Amino acid sequence: MAKDCMTTNENIYFRCRKEAARYNDKLNSRESTSELLGVSVSSLANYELGNTKVVPVDVVVLMADLYNAPELLNNYCANDCPIGCRKAIATEVKPIEKTTLGLLELFSGNKLDFMMSALTTIAVDGKVEEAERQKMNEIVAYMQKLKVLVEELMLFEAKQKGEHNEQS
After folding, report:
1. Model pTM greater than 0.85?
2. Boundaries of every domain in the chain
């Protein structure tokens, strides 16, 4: 039984509901939450306990809106969507200072300028030569890191907007 409790705390659907319950008492219980979501209590329990392999996308969207948890959408895309799971996607809201430091690191020492210059050199003839392949891979890896950090910043902002809407 203790193992189930540990597993529950690791589940993003459970964590997001509990975080949202700090601002909305109706989300403290599965009974009232399931009513707000229009799902059965047992379905919600299965989602939160990880007993359901893939939570229906429409329920994930409802949860994300109700819980003010935009990270649920990205988590679904990164882990459950057969297309999204092939892409680098930010899946959690990180503190703005952590994301900012990550961006500063990527931009330090003119790294972005260097990558764009290298990409321009590669792209000039409209094809990637074998000798350019390793540099192209480095550029793509750099851009993926940048993309994830930008998505983290967007998740942070979406979360902030949702909190401001509830306070109004």
Report:
1. no
2. 2-86, 96-167
